[in-house]
Amino acid sequence: MRTIVCLMSFAILAFGQLNPLSMEPNSWDLGDSHPLAGYEFKDDVVRTASGRAEIGYGDALFSDDCEIEAVVTLRGRSGGLSSSKGWALGGVKLESTGGNYWHLALSESPSGSHHIEMHQMHEGRWTFTGNIDLIHWQDGRFAWEYGTGYRLNLKLKNGEIIGTVTSLDGKQIYKRHAKFKEGTPEYLVRPALTSTKMEAEYRELKGRWIPGNSRTEKAPAKLIEAKNYESDNFVPTVQGKATGFFHLTKTADGKDWMIDPLGRGFVVLGCGSVNYMGPECEKLACFPYKVNNDKQYASRDAWAEEVSNRLKAWGFNFVGGGDSEVIQRGFAYARFINIGGAMASYGDEFDITPNNNAPCTAFPNVFHPRFRDWCEYRARLVCGPYVNDPWLVGYFIDNELAWWGRGKPATGLFNAVMQKNAKHTAKLALRDFLKRRVADNIAAFNRLWKTELKDFDGILELAELPEETAEQVQAKVDFLALIADIYFGESQRAFRQVDKNHLLMGCRFAGIGNTHDVVWQTIGKYNDCITINMYGSVDLDAGTAHTSLREYGKPLTVAFEEIHEKVGLPIIMTEWSFPALDSGLPCTKGAGQRFQTQRERTIASEIYARTILSMPFMVGYVYFKWVDQPALGVRSTAPEDSNYGLVTMDNKPYTELTSMFARLHREVKTLRDAKPPAAKEQPDRSVGSFLPRHTVPVAKLGKGENGLWHRRNGDGTVEGGNGRLTIRSQANSGFLDVLLDGNKLARFNVMLNYMADDGMKQVYSDATRVLSAQCGADGERLLMEFHVEKRGASVELASDLTSFEVKYRLTIIPNADWFCSEILEAKNTSEKTMVLRGLFFRLFPGFESEPLALKNNVPNLWGAPLIQAWMAKDGKAYVGVCARQWMQIRSRYWIDKNNGKHPDSFRKLEESVPENSIYVPQKRFYLFNYLGTGTDVENHAAQILKWDAD
Questions:
Q1: Which of 59, 671, 696, 929 is least crowded, fewest Cβ atoms below 10 Å from its Cβ?
Q2: What is the DSSP letter of 638?
């Protein structure tokens, strides 16, 4: 058959016209195609059903005069849940060498809109136009329909590329016509088909190629023509071997250093996402930065020249991840292999957690029988062309994988696999893992997991297994270790088969808090260094950097020393940034601490940068990023709208920030030898002025005056108030009623969060009874001190018999429509140690309500107070809380699926309280609880907080 097909191919050459292409699979080049894609050749139709199908016509010559035509019908998105996310397409293609190609396709955006696109991939740059002049372009915003066939024709002839789409009745729907610029190197192509995440059908396949300038051999991977390494950005006092490529070494003083190809010390001072396109804006259906650049610059080269000069002037020497037009303009750089993120986008079969076209969602199915092939394919495709490039530092395997699945770092991926169907290869692997763990003894398995399975196949029908004992959790952790070992081991093996010159640099973890120790320990066995994206926080008053300014945060240096001890490799911080509100951008979505001004942003950035470079194992950083994000957000799945950029959307630098980097980067050796910025002395700001003014012994107060009063009722309850506000305890309950002007608007209680069942489950329990109350008042304040308890089984966990007592104080002043609450102590009255995780204030609304969407909803804003509220559905009343930021109180008001309201305002803890022992907060913290009518919640809260500050 192959002989006949080849004779037909030469007939096509002779006539130079479109002729039918063979429908025999061996006529198509599937040997090095996408290993996750599915193909079917049947009844004169080629069908692709999963993954990304890239099928070249193997019987064709590569030619500079070539054409392909097909009737393309798209049936719907392929695969599982993840295929419903991201861009999807099906079309025809003229493929060249080294990954270069043109395609013409019916495309669907992440939002579901349909259009037609014709684009070029050139030297790793998608939608590249730098080598063509556009002759004609018919608008591609045509709403093609599923189930309808369209005739697509793509032709290269006489140095011109032409794509047309017509309906089956011959009506032209789309056309794009471009001519290659003079001096463009020869462009030899062959016919091919392409689809991504689509169930696509191809009929009436035709092709043409002319022998003029052609070849018959299979296209080899094209090596890029790399420039010799010449750079004046180095540290002269640090020397290493001149190997011709970047590598790592440790100097006599114990510091890790990057060494450049010429054997000189190098510190990675990078900027991320430096490209002409910039971020997309789904709501505008365009790339707004590109739109601006098209107006400002004569060409992409002109843009790249200016950007290169700016980055060098600001001391940057590296562009981090992704493709960039400034590569080969005097910058070291890195590339993404994208093993896991890409695989997890191709449907349920190929993921443990799906790629939802957003950071921190994807994790690949490392147990799939084609995972090794996939790793090898990605390594050949991505790394092959660059093995001899001295400017390339190395590769990131992935970016921000979901190592925690959809749950906890220790157990999340195990639990995600349990959710898979019985035939899923990860579920089958998990069954075998659990079977080996108990030496094929089903009785031992049932004892361990408290099940009653007849055989191990019963695991395949379960959707979950418990994590109630240490042995159960350890099993889940060991499965995570297996996943990590396969992922990193196969990635390294595939990479080193292709490239022995460059560094393998980990997978850019999303922070450090969601990764279990076994993952850190495993990555150290397979990589040259590791990379972490860490959006930490800076205390401007103290002048220090932290993982977070919340109660669980650590100094940045301490946290990374702990990671380095586990990993044992040099570290690069590959993303960090601080948006500021005076940029005019919303800054409501995306990671990182926010500041009010560019001045504050700049100070924070300098403190953070100095801290990073002071750590002996840190060999550099990559700032995120070149240009701001769109004010309307990027896309629905990743709606970031923040001021991360060095420049605005119209290329205006944030001069305070860029001037700081220019100055800082000139003294990089000094910074690497320096200690981290020392904390400045500062007054204790954790407590405002209100509560200290009113802290007096209750016993010294009387019955009250100036409208303040209290009394004990015949049923044992107590109540008090100020003429407007009344608080009274409920009989046989831990709750208090809160009234404003005689109307019951809220209930108040306190709650503890702690670990139960030998530390295996978190429990949240309200106090269930008031044991005693003591009240006192004078003309300035009314103090109400309550002693409450919880005994018996918890509402949410019947097996939890933990008992506790809490003492708290409420403070009321004359004429106020608010009161102050303070937890004084928590006592463990159980017979074993309590691991205390949080102290909660709970203010429940007494009316139909919803959590209020606040106007000032910027997250993690330096100095911003806590404000939360429930707003009545009729807009006539509200109740809420507020506190100074330094109280380290967090709040989340939410409604569960059963319409239960959760007014959770809390301070997180991690304290072991022995039996019959008392926990007293080291620093006082208190919360203001306010009630009102109307809708002016934020001003109400602001007035109270001003009272506290004065």
A1: 696
A2: B
